[in-house]
Amino acid sequence: MEQDLERAEERAEQSDCKIVELEEELRVVGNNLKSLEVSEEKANQREEEYKNQIKTLTTRLKEATQREETYEGQVKILSAQLKEAMASREHVEDKIHSLSQKLTQAEARAEFAERSVQKLQKEVDRLEDITWGPCSLPIPALDDLINEIEKYNDIGDNIDDAVVELIPGVQPTPKQLENAVKNRAQQQEAARREKERMEEAARREKERQEEEARRERERQEEEARRPPPPPPAESVPVETTEP
């Protein structure tokens, strides 16, 4: 009986030791489970943050795309306006050149006609003083004088028409015409420089936005590839039982 009792006590002690070991293992498992739950919660938070960042970046990308389309539209409008201005400039320059030639020719003809009229007038005055009276002017000389006067008037009308055609309502001088051509050239040059400046600004803005988007994508990809940090290991004391 005593031996059976001793064996029963030994088995009871062994059972108690196993129970203690199982309780310790259960406590360790519980701690590990809590640590995993905390890690899962942190991972869910990071996932939510990543989703919010992706939404924000998507919105910014859409805004950047819209701005890019707006800039492209403005550049197209400016390009069309520049083409129209260049075509108008060429047309105006050709017209000014043609009218300037006409004006120069008309002035030359007017100067020649004026000299001819003066010459004929002097000849008529001389003949009146020497041979004929005021009313006995030779018919050929009188006809020549009338023809020259009419030519002079016609040339003057042509000059006036050319001036009016150049600048309606204003009688410009050659210096004013030259200044008008220079001002037009300056305006065209300013328009060309403004177009180049807008194109350069749009190109730089597009490159900057693309660079920002690329860096943001690389940062997100790097964070996505980076494994989450392991939970801190907790030291668990192990109780030893003496046999």
Describe the structure.
- The chain is mainly alpha-helical and 243 residues long.
- 86% of the residues lie in helices and 0% in strands.
- The protein is rod-shaped.
- Mean pLDDT is 73; it is low at 131-142.
- Residues 174-243 are annotated as: Disordered.
- This is Tropomyosin-2.
- Pfam families: Tropomyosin (PF00261).
- Residues 190-226 have a biased composition (Basic and acidic residues).
Number of strands: 0
Global structural class: mainly alpha
Distance between the termini: 22 Å
Overall shape: rod-shaped
- Low-confidence segments, ≥5 residues, pLDDT <50? 131-142
Give the overall pLDDT as a whole number.
73
| Beta-strand fraction estimate | under 5%
InterPro entries: Tropomyosin
Protein name: Tropomyosin-2
Region (Disordered): 174-243
Coiled coil: 5-130
Keywords:
about 240 residues, mainly alpha, rod-shaped, Tropomyosin-2, Tropomyosin, coiled coil
Layout of helices and strands, plus pairs?
Elements: H1 2-130, H2 139-166, H3 174-225
Helix pairs in contact: 1-2, 1-3
Family: Belongs to the tropomyosin family.
Biased composition (Basic and acidic residues): 190-226
Keywords: Coiled coil
Summarize the structure.
The protein has helices at residues 2-130, 139-166, 174-225. The chain has 243 residues and is mostly helical.
